[in-house]
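Case study: UPF0045 protein.
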Amino acid sequence: MIVAFSVTPLGVGEDVGEYVADAVRVVRESGLPHRTDAMFTSLEGDWDACMDVVRRAVAAVEARAPRVSLVLKADIRPGVTDGLTSKVETVERHLAEG
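Here is what the predicted structure looks like once written out:
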């Protein structure tokens, strides 16, 4: 399973980087394969592991913000591993072929 999610603190002003860093720290400490970009953090693992990380990432932001927004998208595909890498490699291969 791959989960892409974004946790945004509300009611703390425009500069939210330090709050988002709290969420990303939880992801990094989880040990699950992950990637963070400008809009989302993606992680890969089984349902329980991924949802636990998302829950803890939200809690980390919620501890410092009066309100939290969560956007989550999941690719639930049993038997697939290393999807974070293989999906990107497939697209890159097609791009290289012209």
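For the exam, be able to explain this: The chain has a mean pLDDT of 95.
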